[in-house]
Design goal:
The complex is a heterodimer of chains A (about 140) and B (about 500). Helix content of chain A is about 70%, strand content about 10%. Chain A contains 5 helices and 2 strands, in the order ααααββα.
């Protein structure tokens, strides 16, 4: 049966980027306001799942040629590395550092090591969730 | 080094992550898992020595003040268990090189083991009751992978049962923690102990104590919650079975011992009486099971149930002899169960069956296997000077001191049944007329024997060298019997 999904596919191409950008916004909004790596990662996953619904597994794999298992591993490494950095300063594990920096364009910005940890969480959530969806939806 | 208690948790985790990058490359995975376990083991020995010289170590994550952040606490009890865990993992990993098969190795077998060790060590070390739940989940999720890995029909059937039971008990765990939190308003274990002591353990806390016993009893396989264990543990291949049998139930036992010595110590007449009755019943059903089967795996698996009963019976006495006996027996049981499972794995490899009736006369072809099995069997039953003796002696002494004559007689009698059940394996498999054996290569047999022999020798040394271990076990007992040592270390 030939399905007519022109509307879905066309809107998806636009909406994917809106969701993805919003997920990045949510990711950076974390720490002081609601948001962060976990929910940002889930939003990105949602965007990719939308792509999967509108197109199919092979197309999406071609568009996003990442190995999501490796992505999970990189995320875990990033998270663990950030948390374990405290070992070298002999302060309790997970202690985070932050300071205000004046950056061009952004002005005075406070940067946290917690953000790197959150980036790890982001990658783990996306990697793990997409791996699960791929392996469940994979065999037909 | 303030983060020392965390090293045995972080290091296996780090190496498990690194292995994820090399899914297809079995050689790198083997090397990484071996190096990872050895480094973690060295760290845990260093931890053990430091705890011995400096007392209880505590670190609260993220530099938050103690009752608010998550505390990690290494006292002698948890340091001993962490070290034993890594020791057993080392031998199981080496054994797996030959025993598990490349197909499983290519599907995250070694990462799963190290993730599970992360969870086990975390559960032993954490000083926060909710964090303990998190580490339980870490080890359970890794164990789900290990039990289903390979996808045989039997494995799939049993893993559904295993996952269902554990999901239900995990849900109950969260509910129990929520009850406890709503009563005492804190999750830090040291702080909970202080708060319960302040209110003097009213009825609701006793109810929570029994709920905790149910939650950890499912994981630790006490009567009548052990029903899932014999089926589920028999499904995965032997190295996985050895890990599960040696480590997983012990986490439940540890949690019961920790909560029943730190939190619920003000109404011992109810809570510890229940624990004692249940543990004696556990021993009895375990004995029945161990004698009922003609299957190698089932016999040893029911011996896990017996051991859990014996350890908890010792812990329920709440006196010095009983508790230190329980600690001695706990470490002994982890070592000897690891060794026995590895041994029966070799017997199954050599004979191609786990049915006792189809074996015989192995003594003529595989004499070393027979002798080491016999040593391990005697060790399990607790024949002096082997490793099980001192623990059981102290447990019985503690029970007599506490006036629980009947219980201790049952525990002592159970030793005979344990001996009978394992000697039956020896008689059927090694004596009698030699059966025709399937063609197996000599090389894998030798490679599997090596880690097994070293583990058996270690368990013998554990029995013979009891004298040197006594200071360590005494320290562990002191912390359990005097919660103030633990509390002072955490809350400073």
């Amino acid at each position: 049966m030939k399905t007519n999904d022109v509307i879905l596919q066309t809107t998806t191409k636009v909406i994917f980027f809106i969701i993805f950008l919003f997920s990045i916004h949510i990711f950076f909004a974390g720490h002081y306001t609601p948001g962060g790596g976990f929910v940002g990662g889930l939003l990105t996953t949602g965007a990719i799942v939308l792509l999967l619904l509108a197109f199919d597994l092979n197309t999406v794999q071609k568009a996003l040629p990442f190995n999501f298992t490796i992505m999970t591993a990189i995320g875990l490494l990033l998270a663990l590395g950030t948390a374990a950095g405290s070992i070298f300063f002999n302060v309790p594990f997970f202690t985070h550092a932050f300071d205000d920096f004046s950056l061009p364009l952004f002005g005075v910005t406070s940067l946290h090591t917690a953000m790197v940890f959150d980036a790890g969480v982001f990658l783990v959530v996306v990697g793990a969730a997409i791996t699960i969806i791929q392996s469940i939806g994979g065999d037909s | 080094m303030i983060n020392l208690p965390l090293l045995p948790i972080i290091l296996p985790f780090l190496f498990a992550i690194l292995m994820l990058f090399f899914k297809e490359n079995v050689r790198i995975q083997r090397a990484l898992s071996l190096v990872g376990v050895i480094i973690s083991l060295i760290a845990s020995f260093y931890l053990l020595v430091t705890v011995k010289s400096e007392g209880v170590l505590a670190v609260t994550l993220g530099s938050w003040p103690a009752p608010f952040g998550i505390s990690m606490v290494s006292d002698m009890f948890s340091a001993l268990l962490v070290t034993t865990t890594l020791l057993i993992t080392l031998f199981v990993v080496v054994y797996s090189f030959t025993a598990i098969g490349e197909e499983r190795e290519k599907f995250f077998y070694y990462p799963a083991i190290l993730f599970m060790v992360t969870g086990v060590n975390g559960a032993f070390t954490t000083g926060d009751i909710f964090n303990m739940f998190v580490f339980f989940e870490v080890l359970l999720i890794a164990s789900y992978l290990l039990i289903v890995l390979g996808g045989e029909k039997k494995q799939l059937r049993e893993s559904i049962k295993y996952i269902l039971v554990n999901v239900v008990s995990s849900a109950l765990f969260v509910i129990t923690v929520a009850y406890l939190y709503s009563v005492v308003g804190t999750l830090n274990m040291a702080d909970i102990s202080v708060k319960i002591a302040e209110v003097g353990q009213p009825g609701i806390i006793t109810v929570i104590a029994v709920l905790m016993l149910i939650v950890f009893g499912v994981k630790g396989a006490i009567f009548p919650l052990y029903f899932w264990l014999p089926g589920s543990y028999a499904a995965p291949p032997v190295p996985v079975l050895a890990l599960f049998g040696a480590l997983l139930t012990k986490v439940g036992v540890y949690a019961i011992m920790r909560t029943y010595t730190l939190f619920f110590t003000h109404n011992v007449g109810v809570t510890h009486e229940i624990l004692m009755v249940v543990s004696v019943l556990t021993v009895i059903v375990g004995c029945v099971g161990a004698l009922a089967y003609f299957d190698l795996k089932q016999i040893i698996i029911y011996n896990i149930v017996i051991a859990v009963g014996v350890i908890l019976f010792g812990a329920a006495q709440m006196n010095e002899a009983g508790i230190s006996g329980a600690i001695f027996y706990l470490v002994h049981d982890m070592l000897i169960k690891g060794a026995l499972f590895l041994l029966i794995g070799i017997i199954i490899y050599v004979t191609g069956t786990s049915n006792l009736r189809k074996m015989g006369g192995l003594m003529k072809t595989h004499a070393p296997l027979g002798w080491f099995y016999l040593i391990a069997a005697f060790g399990l039953a607790g024949i002096p000077p082997l490793s099980g003796f001192i623990g059981k002696l102290l447990i019985a002494q503690g029970a007599f001191e506490a006036g629980n004559v009947w219980g201790s007689i049952i525990i002592l009698a159970s030793s005979l049944i344990v001996l009978l059940s394992v000697i039956r394996i020896f008689i059927y498999a090694f004596w009698g007329e030699p059966m025709e054996l399937p063609k197996t290569k000599r090389k894998p047999y030798a490679r599997m024997m090596l880690p097994t022999i070293v583990l058996v020798v270690l368990s013998v040394l554990y029995g013979v060298g009891t004298e040197w271990l006594i200071p360590y076990v005494t320290d562990a007992t002191d912390v359990l019997l005097q919660p103030s040592i633990y509390i002072d270390a955490v809350l400073k």
